[in-house]
Write a structure and sequence with these properties.
Blueprint (H helix, E strand, L loop, with lengths): L2 E3 L13 H10 L1 E3 L12 H12 L2 E4 L7 H11 L3 E4 L10 H8 L3 E2 L3 H7 L7 H10 L8 H8 L7 E2 H8 L3 H13 L3 E4 L3 E4 L1
Parallel strand pairs: 1-2, 3-4, 4-5
Antiparallel strand pairs: 6-8, 7-8
């Protein structure tokens, strides 16, 4: 299930267009905040929130980051907390890769495929036949299948789409959509922009 760490009070949805996602995570996952109810978003609260995210994680992955990106703050917290930090290398001429290239120079692990994470964290991939057998008898909620990936891709295009719209139109759960988008992002097939929007490259 999906866990979301908020930089606001539990009753304050930010940004407002995430209301549906907020409600779905509250119903199926977990909402976490250290802020008291009624707390509105302020810039200084987001770095504080990031240390909780990194602390809950086994590893932190940075796909793209400019030199002043908040993702670098999260990566620093992760390193201080003894978590693995992965970064996707990019062109030295691309400002969006300056932060990730700096992380790699400072000791972050290079990430070029999902297998890099699985190998580093010593997560053994099961044979596909075993996975298919298990799906017949257990709840596969949150585990994207190849069919899920192809289904979500049918809703993506070079035109930016909001993640909430993808969840609603595809009828996939929020954590499945997030997992697939991360895989596509690592593969260089989608790019994220501000406000929770994604587009095919």
């Amino acid at each position: 299930a999906t866990a979301a760490v908020l930089a606001t009070g539990i009753d304050h949805i930010y940004p407002p267009e995430n209301e549906k996602l907020h409600r779905e995570i509250a119903e199926r996952g977990l909402l976490i905040t250290e802020m008291p109810p009624g707390t509105a978003p302020k810039a200084e609260q987001f770095p504080r929130r990031n240390r909780i995210i990194s602390g809950m994680s086994r590893a932190v992955i940075v796909v793209e980051a400019a030199m002043r990106s908040g993702s670098l703050i999260t990566a620093r917290f992760a390193a201080e907390q003894g978590r693995d930090v992965f970064a996707v290398p990019g062109s030295p001429l691309d400002p969006r890769s300056e932060g990730t290239n700096r992380l790699i120079k400072d000791g972050a692990q290079i990430l070029t495929s999902v297998e890099d994470v699985l190998e580093s964290l010593r997560i053994v991939q099961r044979p596909q036949t075993e996975m298919f057998l298990e799906q017949d008898v257990s709840d596969s909620y949150g585990e994207p299948s190849e069919g899920d990936r192809e289904h979500l891709l049918s809703f993506l295009s070079p035109t930016e789409t909001h993640i909430d719209d993808l969840i609603r139109e595809s009828r996939l759960s929020a954590d499945v959509v997030s997992a697939i988008l991360l895989e596509l992002e690592i593969a260089g097939r989608v790019v994220r922009s501000g406000g929770g929007r994604v587009a095919l490259v």
